[in-house]
Amino acid sequence: MPGELPKTYDPKAVEPKIYKMWMEGGWFHADENDERETFSISLPPPNVTGQLHYGHAFQHTIIDILIRFKRMQGYNTLWMPGVDHASISTQMKVEEMLRKEHGLTGRDIGREKFLEHAWAWKNKYGDRIIEQCKLLGSSCDWERERFTMDEGCNTAVREVFVRLYEQGLIYKGSRIINWCPQCTTALSDIEVEHEESEGCLWHIKYPIKDSDEFLTVATTRPETMLGDTAVAVHPDDARYAHLIGKTVILPLMDREIPIVADEYVEREFGTGCVKITPCHDPNDFEVAARHNLPHILVLNESARVNENGGKYNGFTREDARKRIVEDLTGIGLLAKTEKHIHNVGHCERCKTVCEPISSEQWFVSMKELASPAIECVKNGQVKFVPERFSKIYLNWMENIRDWCISRQLWWGHRIPAFTCEDCGEVIVAREDPAACKCGSERLTQEDGVLDTWFSSALWPFSTLGWPEDTPALRRFYPNSVMVTGYEIIFLWIARMIFSGIGYLGKPPFHTVVVHGMVRDNMGRKMSKSSGNNVDPVDVINEYGADALRMSVTTGVSLGNDTRYFPERCETMRNFCNKLWNASRFALMYAGEGDDTLPAPSELAFEDKWILTRLSHVTREVTDNIERYELGVAAGKLYDFVWGELCDWYIELIKPRLSSGGGTSLTARKTLCHTLSQSLALLHPFMPYITEEIWRYLPHDGAALMTASWPGINTDYVFERESADMERVMDAIRAVRARRAEMRVPPSKKAHMTIVTDSAGAFENGKAYIAKLAGASDVTVTRSAPDNSGGLVCIVTPAARIFLPLAELIDLAAERARLEKELASATADFEKLSLKLNNPGFTGKAPVQVVEAERARLEELTALRGKLAESLSNIANITLKD
Asked: How far apart are CA 540 and CA 569, in angstroms?
């Protein structure tokens, strides 16, 4: 043991020292030659450009709890770490750096020079988030740290691309894709965030050729009409049957376009006529394919009108919309304008409004890949926790569309496809080809890169050496668990599942543990732009990592969002200090050999109670963690350590510890054992402080993190004695509450009569009742006192307790005080009730202000009830003659 525990707990001094000890001990490393049962988790790789945010802190804490728990249970544990190249995010960061520092763009310096800057950026900032992860106490196997663009991952990505291409599941084609004009790249459907937006619905009249009739269509995007190639009606709509096959004149463009019949049109919606713009709407694209309509792209990659837009060429889409509406009005073809609420897609990275455009891209055909990924969840091979997320996953997978995997970027895995400039042959191979089969060496590689999630989908097995059949892959694949936020179930989880099944024949993990999002104290999403972002490193610096970890765990249920409250961190810092001080107290008396329990026959009443409670908590917490109920487990440990070990047991044994002799030794050993086991139970949640305290206690082994998880010894479970102790504690709590309520000074003591059928329990507890409940002496009986005049009766489930309250306080003065406080509380209650019944206040004041006032009204209601009850208790006391 290193000596005396310092007077105060200083996380800034303890945490770096303990983490260094863990690293030097090599205890995070998993050995593929270790034959114990494995438990493995892959770290969802944070972006190489990023820094730790509160969501990371929450997620990493969950994973670390599971890993530390399983490590202490004796599993061969692997937590595989690494970072993601984050294609779009990193390219945007490097572009921003070039612009600010050199006044240049990527286009100015070209691909190769840009990639040099990107790698320099990665090398400079890539380790930052990993070092921040370590601050949290994350026990990853850092010897295995990976990067999605390292040599091994590059090999895996290329192997998968080639295999899918050879199977006919990767193809290049023209489809409607989501385009970000700011990032100037294609996006997959799930990289687009849809937000409600207030816009307009413009009703435009299309003149029918050689007729005075019009067809009226409604659109939220007048600028796209420049690319219309038809108007569609339903084939069974009698209103327009006579017009099918005729043509209309496209307003402003004077282009003749056909009227076609298609079942896609909803007769009951609007006028029953739909403008068809194949290059700018996915449904119109399908209609055009069925009717062999031409495709006219009218917006370029910057979302400006191109040369196909006639006189609007060069306009931004917003300016074109405004000008087109003005021009339609001028020629009398704008029928009407309506306000309209609709969902608008935004790039999840830069928040720019996305543009649906027709573009030649690379796609993965998803139907064949999705089928086994759906079945493995239906048959229970992969389970979601909470289970409700399996339904969300299945709904998305059963309606999945082909995956657009190409991105018009430079940073990332370059698409391994080469086109022969002489014969047009497309070559996809595991190695860069030197020549085409026609003999030509003039080969051009695709300029774009693969979607970031293409490589992330391979993470659980590419990090273990696949496509090579490595010992690590055989030992740790599939992973045991994947921990993820609900927002990337589609982006990542689904893709890992179908990839794992496709290339290794089995899902990449057995269980998906889904957590919610950390929001601010008002329930809003945290972001820098909103000014409500909380840096977990700042929280660690102020409160310590253990306080942060407990604050994001306690009371949190998986799958649900949680809120950040600094008060919760402060509470958990206080808990750390409570544990530290209790440990200092225990170490004042601890000696060598105190880590072994006394024989059961030597234990006192309170020893049997605390050891029984320890057994109950050990069993419950173990079960909770196994079921991923981490918030429940943390709450139980908090209550046990603070409420039972510190506030009750230590107080109960203080006289014995100071008395010396055999009873003191028994108390010392029981306290040391209970504290040591409590530290082990707390360790996955609060690794730093528990490891530090454990070093000072009598123990075997090199570190707490490698110690065995606490078990239950039935020889030290005493249910009857524990139940008796709970009855005594109920009585002490009830008497303390009544004395506090009546403001009895602690120095005033009086005789106490306990009427009960559990006489044995209260006889054993007399000394505790006298010490902790302010009794001068205690009588335990089965019969109520003959003369109860001047006595107050306190009722608990096991007893009635009689106190001579009239001897302890001035009843008249107490009655006057209570009446005054009740009158004041009633006045405040009535005033606040009037305020909350006033629509002028509730309708205009901020929601949080109104809610605070309602909470205050509830507090006043409870206070009035307690004051009235206290007055009633005094009134019921009959003073002695």
From this structure: 10
Which residue's entry shows tokens 């002496």? 777
Instruction: Please confirm whether the linkage preceding 467 is cis (ω < 30° from 0).
Output: yes
Please, how many CA atoms are within 13 Å of residue 860, restricted to the half-sphere of its CB?
18
Of 496, 456, 426, 448, nearest to 162 (Cα)?
426
Residue 79: enclosing H or E segment and its boundaries? strand 76-80
Q: Are 765 and 796 within 8 A, CB to CB?
A: no
pLDDT value at residue 2? 60
d(CA 338, CA 201): 5
CA distances from residue 674 to 9, 582, 644, 668, 731 in whole angstroms, order as listed: 21, 12, 11, 10, 24
Mean pLDDT, all residues of the chain: 91
The whole-angstrom separation of Cα 66 and Cα 480 is 11
CB 430 within 8 A of CB 158: yes
Q: Tokens 């209650």 label which residue?
A: 829
Q: Please say whether the dihedral angle defined by the alpha carbons of residues 409, 414, 420 and 424, taken in this order, is positive or negative.
A: negative
pLDDT at 765: 92
Secondary structure (DSSP) of 632-666: HHHHHHHIIIIIIIIIIIHHHHHHHHHH-HHHHHH
Helix-helix angle 545-553:687-696, to 10 degrees: 120
CA distance 117 to 110: 11
Q: Over range 13-18, report the average pLDDT.
A: 97
**Burial, 773: exposed, middle or buried (Cβ in 10 Å; 0-12, 13-18, 19+)?**
buried
Distance CA 296, CA 308 (A): 7
